[in-house]
Amino acid sequence: METLRERKKQRTREALVRAALELFTTQGYEHTTVDEIAETVGVSQRTFFRYFAGKEDVAFTVQAMTEERFVAAVRARPAHEAPMEALRQAVLEGWDAIRETVETAVPVELYVRMYRTIESTPALLAAHLLRSAATEETIARVLAEREGVDVDADPRPRLAVAVFGGVIRVTERQWCTGDDFSLDAIRQLTASCLDQVGSALTGNWRADRDR
Known about the structure:
- The protein is mostly helical.
- It has helices spanning 4-27, 34-41, 45-51, 55-59, 61-76, 83-93, 95-103, 108-120, 122-147, 156-177, 183-195, 197-202, 205-210.
- The protein is globular and about 60 Å long.
- The protein starts with a helix and ends with a helix.
């Protein structure tokens, strides 16, 4: 059973995350200091560092939760699904679960704003790409385990995840430059991009254009 002290620590952590994301999205990541985040919550800088290693750590807290949820969703897909189908279903069926995960920490609207801030902030975008590469490697190993192959000898798990990861990056960019920034919009955009993978890789684009 969770103690009063544990609940207080959790509330402080959640308050720091929310304050940080509000500041990052309103005044900019690079113009926000750890002291400002701590002051907003009414705690010391020292208290902040008990929970987070620094600004980047707190900036990606909610995203880390969604990444963990996605990896778990891939691992839980039925064994009969082909690898790409497992990835597709995990991401498309996982949006409701991801929404619930996000809402345990911050409002979905704030999460969406932070997503756009990451895309428009060079330091955060670089960190995001590094994190994505690490997540893709984890997923490749999950796929290899599902299919009973050696991820270091068989290139297919990493190839499948590379294609899937490329689709996600295209989706993120289109979503962040569009007019609808809802989670429903990115879900629909993801489905649309995934539907075009086959024709994009093997189709004759000129033939499509000349129809």
